Amino acid sequence: MKMTKLANVLMGLLLLGVAACKNAETKETPNGFKYQVVEAGDGIVPKQDQLLVFEYVMKDSKDSVWIDTYENGFPGVIRIQDTSALKTEIGMMQMFRQLSDNDSITISKPAKEFFKDVLGRPLTPEVDSTVTITCNLRVIEILDMQKFNEFQAKLYEKRKGKQKSKDESAIDKYIAEKKIADVKTDTSGIRYVIHNNAGGKKPTAASCVEVKYEGKFLKDEHIFDKNEKIAFSLGQVIPGWRISIPMLGIGDSATFYIPSALAYGPQGYPGAIPPDAILIFDVALLGVGDTYDQEAHSCK
After folding, report:
1. Three-class DSSP labels, the chain
2. Which of 44, 54, 66, 94 could form a disulfide with 29 if both were Cys (CB 3.0 to 4.6 A apart)?
3. Which pLDDT does position 23 carry in this prediction?
4. How many CA atoms, within 13 angstroms, populate the side-chain half-sphere of residue 213?
5. In 3D, which of 194, 131, 167, 152 has the Cα closest to residue 278?
6. Which residues, 6+ apart, have CB-to-CB distance to 296 below 8 Å?
7. For residues 124 and 115, is the Cβ–Cβ distance under 8 A?
8. What angle do CA 251, 256, 259 make, to 5 degrees?
9. Phi and psi dihedrals of 87, rounded to 5?
10. Of 118, 72, 74, 65, the residue nearest 95 (C-alpha)
């Protein structure tokens, strides 16, 4: 499980939250799950089928942050079920029924209890069973489905702009630290370095291309994929490749720094590409065709 460190400002807010917990009110759900209300909201609890939207930071007693929705831009969302589900719900789900807009709460439990009562599953082997896990949570909206859809659309637009700026800063920092020269910037936000220009035929965004490439993560330079020769239609690959590869002619090579929104975005590619990953591709264009030949696995 990947961990990140809290920003100084956020850490300050959490420390204030810890201090406030000394005066917090302890509440309990019907099945005995206890939590502390650090700051009370408007007192109006959600109704059946409403969605409770919340920001939260989850960290352990070794000061490793597991999830920080303030940083990743994706708040948690819980739909309130009908009361027939109440008796089988875990403590955390029962707690959500009791929260109101702008409630701020803290939950702190030993790892095994936290997994059972908060996450609803057994402790996983890779987690240190001796740590205590704390979740600081604040309700930001209680919405019906229609308003939630509007909220989500606005959230994605806001996050897209924020992530774009974050990616551009990370790419520029990487380029500066590595002292990479002759870097150009495309209007899409892709940074690139052309290594040689043979003047060969260039593809369009709909062409079939044959390339040699190596892909790695900007964050740690880990190589996640490479191929000496592969053919594909540019219409079937990530936007970053549809934009960048037509910059090359046959015989050309380049390095492309592709922002996450033009790669695999916030969803990533399970098992291979993490969410919001910025990718670096070293690419050589070997050939160009009009269509992809399924039998020969080449361009024609």
Report:
1. CCCECCCHHHHHHHHHHHHHHHHCEEEECCCCCEEEEEECCCCCCCCCCCEEEEEEEEEECCCCEEEEHHHHCCCEEEECCCHHHHHHCCHHHHHHHHCCCCCEEEEEEEHHHHHHHHHCCCCCCCCCCCCEEEEEEEEEEEECHHHHHHHHHHHHHHHHHHHHHHHHHHHHHHHHHHCCCCCEECCCCCEEEEEECCCCCCCCCCCEEEEEEEEEECCCCCEEEEEEEEEEEHHHCCHHHHHHHHHCCCCCEEEEEECHHHCCHHHCECCCECCCCCEEEEEEEEEEECCEECCCCEEC
2. 94
3. 64
4. 21
5. 167
6. none
7. yes
8. 155
9. -70, -15
10. 118
* Residue 252 pLDDT: 96
| Contact present, 144 and 51 (Cβ < 8 Å) | yes
Q: How far is CA 39 from CA 86, 99, 229, in A?
A: 25, 11, 59
Residue 26 pairs in a beta bridge with 36
176-209 per-position pLDDT tens digit: 999 999 999 999 899 999 999 888 999 988 889 9
Q: Are 213 and 227 in contact (CB under 8 A)?
A: yes
The model's pTM: 0.56
Q: What's the Rg (C-alpha) of the chain?
A: 24
What pLDDT is attached to residue 195? 96
Please report, in angstroms and rounded to a whole number, the separation of the first and last CA atoms in the chain: 45
Residues in a beta bridge with 218: none
Cα separation of 242 and 233, whole Å? Answer: 9
Residues of the chain with pLDDT under 70: 1-23, 72, 270
